[in-house]
């Protein structure tokens, strides 16, 4: 007999679900009722081990008491405060914490509510920066094929996932794309960063020659492409991008909505790879998924050019006409501060770094399973790419998700690629459970 809390609704029709096969789901629903630690519980009572940290975001695990209590206290004390021409203490405390967390002089935080908003914010800051320094002709933005930068019009314009773009018209003008970095012929079953592909960054020089550097404001890439199916950067690739952008006065934006806050065993991919971008977009792990929040970290010269530069106007003038009603929402700030304390107190970034080799070992042990054509990993991220069924792309991956659910495992799919990113609290024993259940799924998958 189900408890009242676990009871399922009797009508699923009204909710138009995002990124979901609505017809199939509503005929065969998978409804989550509870979460704790590493596990979800469905309304039918089944427990699933969470191999995806929710949606790449619950890095500290689920229902962590410090975070839950911080949100509860804050809701009773200050439920909302505007940050247009006003402020509240937690917003400044959190910004200072983030300035100390991110490497180099990424020391100013602009708060948003999601990764999509962080991306559009970073693109607008890049354009505003170029105008502020007298380079107003620099309006072009460069993304990358197969890149995912959220679902705002800016994000899908610089993004490179076909289905996210094809239905929505011409998008932003003046956008070009670098080639993606996945090369199965040379790098199949790589462990960590692939050996081949650094030269792909040199395509930026070709794009610059085509458009001229004086027209290009920024380049945006995911240091590790996540949503498309975990593409670690080839060795030397990010370093070459940084060198080319610096040479031509182009800002480099790292989209770290997935990789920031411990996913690679460091505060950020910028720290992990030792490459300093000009702007970093974040969200997801900032609050461990508990309250929607994002943050764009900007280097000092970017902030100073816009806020303190000659074109900033008089002291009482607004320097950047951009923001959101819920920027630095008090509940989100409380959740983020408690989340950062949890990461620090429990050493979760260091824990991820220590577990990464074992994660890699167990993941690559799936090589040789039916239909597996590639395995990729870095930090506590991993992907198993399956061959597509003839004429039915994505179907095998979808069936893998359903079969894994039957075995008590939540995985994420992108086409025929299985992507995994467990909470950073995962143990070796739980990694074993994840890989054993996934292995059984692959063995039984047609």
Automatic annotation (TrEMBL):
Domain of life: Bacteria
Alphabetical list of InterPro entries matching this protein: Aminotrans_3, Aminotrans_3_PPA_site, PyrdxlP-dep_Trfase, PyrdxlP-dep_Trfase_major, PyrdxlP-dep_Trfase_small
Presence of keyword Calcium: no
Keywords, alphabetical: Aminotransferase, Pyridoxal phosphate, Transferase
Cofactors required: pyridoxal 5'-phosphate
Name of this protein: Aspartate aminotransferase family protein
One Pfam family hit: Aminotran_3
GO molecular function: transaminase activity
Coiled-coil portions: none
PANTHER family: ADENOSYLMETHIONINE-8-AMINO-7-OXONONANOATE AMINOTRANSFERASE, BETA-ALANINE--PYRUVATE AMINOTRANSFERASE
Family assignment from sequence similarity: Belongs to the class-III pyridoxal-phosphate-dependent aminotransferase family.
